[in-house]
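# nightly structure sweep
# worker-07 picked up a monomer target from the shared queue
# config: single-sequence mode, recycle default, output format = structure tokens
# input follows
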Amino acid sequence: MRRYLGEAVCAAARLAFHPAGRNPVWSGIKQGPQESRSVALTFDDGPSESTPRLLDVLEKHGVRATFFQCGSNVRRLPQIAREVARRGHEIGNHTFTHAQLYWQRVEAIHLEIASTQEAIAETCGAVPALFRAPFGSRWFGVSSVLRETGLRMVKWSHDSGDWHFDEKAIVDHATASLHGGAILLFHDARALASNPDVTQTIRAIDIIIPLLRDQDYAPTPLSVLLAPG
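# output follows
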């Protein structure tokens, strides 16, 4: 009996983490249309004390991006969260505490997501339409909560590895095998850490945007990249 229980748990885990998925609510959107010449720059975990420096670089290049924010950080740094919205960037939901959603009960998942919707709406005056799970994890119950809150799950096609790579490696990983509709993953924070150092990411972004344009790619927010038609 114990053996069969163990096999069932392993099967559930494989289902939760398998990168392929037929249901976009469950597996998440991983890219936009490849025939597009647009790509999306996305930033997770913020806002943080470092976010304004990143906003300055994006503004210098005239680029709007998508920021998946943690509700706890929004409550901690409301002025910076509002500044992201004020500068024309899109804000998505990244849970309240940057929680691992696997092994969580539906009630806990709902609290993480709904409380972040509330924090962002009250602070920034905009209700997120997009959701990204911390670590890209999936678990049973997430899809029902997303349907209830009206959110679409979005993952990524290109992981920059900016949380542990140096500036050059970030640029290389973010732009390797680039294609239309690519969704590039970066971070403007480190989960709920205060005053994180994301200097390497900010410097890399300053390099990446001109590289994208040299290849005739246009950086856009996710909602533009994923818009039908």
